[in-house]
Amino acid sequence: MPDRPSARSLVSHCLWLALAWTLPGHAQPPAQAQPAVYAAAQAEQTPMLATLKNLVHIESGSRDYGGVSYIAQVAAERLKALGGEVQIIPASDVVRLEDTPEQVGPMVQAVFKGRGQSRIMMIAHMDTVYQRGDVDKQPFRIEGDRVYGLGVEDEKQGVALVLHSIAMLQKLGYDSFGEITVLFNSDEEISSPGSRRLISALARDQDAIFSFESGGLQGTLHLATSGIGAMFLDVQGKSSHAGAKPEAGVNALYELSHQLLQMRDLSQPDNGLKLNWTIAQAGTTRNVVPPHAQAQADARALRAQDFQALQDAVQEKIKNRLLSDSKVTASFELRRPPMQASDAARRIAAQAKAIYQDELGIPLHVNDVALGGGTDAAFAALNTRGGVVEGMGVCGYGAHDMYGEYILLDCIAPRLYLVARMVMALSEPATAH
């Protein structure tokens, strides 16, 4: 869910990074930074890059059951080595969506226990949108300040960042948190049909939930995400000879076209409600009146009630048919619920912003208005008492772009620092900003 900053803001952000965080081994801590945490973050960058290279070269498309099962094993082993109570959880409680594969990949859950009271959850996904063999077209590599690779931004950087943030805390001897729960899933890119319920269940009693999607080139934190839905139209007509006796048929394509045209005004962009028809099929043969037609639309909303209102509006529209003998049905599928910014999320984001700006001298943007994208953070936010913050991952760009997906090298150590310091701030409220 990367933001698209202006050229001026990008230049400004890069200058801040260059001034505040030079290459590891060559920087003095900024005046307000905690020296031990700063040094640990710098030291962890090279090991994290090695982990990231390994993860990128494991092909784990959402529908590649063997690939996602293997990367889950690798992640589980790393979490066990860090001392977590780890389990690989098969996707057994699956919400069957229109495009859900027969086998959905597993989840990896790990719990790290400290001696304090805070409960913090970290979520990231291991799957990508790419197909087996694609990694040969875009292997892991570093060019200047960019780290390229398939899935490197979306979101294997997130998996690596979680692993090495926990490693950092251990090397610092920090255990004042109560419990850190890690959940890696392998079906995010297909709307998380097998993991959404577990994400919601685990998030319920957390104080804070961090989701490790990239925040774009500026590393923006997101407190709100759009809900995503799919609308389906199905039209049943009657076939006949298109040349000899078309009047004996009921042209499903005509009816579908009528329905789509009368629904073109259902979007309300000012309110964040969008309905765009994107896929349609009709007909079998050129000289046969099509007996069946169907279409699918992408739907977006900022509030759950807007989806219900949209469904009601569509049901009302389909009562008006072009052909009285046609049969028109509509159905809706919720892919992701909307996430609205909560007061708890705003407080946590304010702490993060203060740490980044006051201790590192790097601006941190916080966005509490949904921009159209949706993530697993929304499932975490459904019933939790804690604040949910999206975009904790490494700055990057080009998600789903086979030749242009990358993260920024100079953002790795600051993000490691931020995650570690946020655990500390949430675990020791008296020292928080």
What does this structure look like?
The protein is an alpha/beta fold and 433 residues long. 33% of the residues lie in helices and 20% in strands. The chain has helices spanning 7-20, 35-56, 65-81, 152-171, 196-203, 252-262, 304-317, 343-360, 377-381, 412-427, and strands at 85-89, 107-113, 119-125, 141-143, 146-148, 179-185, 208-211, 221-222, 227-236, 274-282, 292-301, 327-336, 366-367, 387-390, 396-397, 406-408. The strands form 4 sheets. The chain has a 6-stranded mixed beta sheet with strand order 1-2-6-3-7-14, with helices on both faces. A hairpin with an 8-residue loop joins strand 15 and strand 16. It starts with 6 loop residues before the first helix and ends in a 6-residue tail after the last helix.
Largest sheet: 6 strands, mixed
Morphology: elongated
Overall pLDDT, averaged? Answer: 93
User: Structural class, please?
Assistant: alpha/beta
Q: How are the secondary structure elements laid out?
A:
Elements: H1 7-20, H2 35-56, H3 65-81, E1 85-89, E2 107-113, E3 119-125, E4 141-143, E5 146-148, H4 152-171, E6 179-185, H5 196-203, E7 208-211, E8 221-222, E9 227-236, H6 252-262, E10 274-282, E11 292-301, H7 304-317, E12 327-336, H8 343-360, E13 366-367, H9 377-381, E14 387-390, E15 396-397, E16 406-408, H10 412-427
Parallel strand pairs: 3-6, 3-7, 7-14, 8-13
Antiparallel strand pairs: 1-2, 2-6, 4-5, 5-16, 9-11, 9-12, 10-11, 15-16
Helix pairs in contact: 2-4, 2-10, 4-10, 8-10
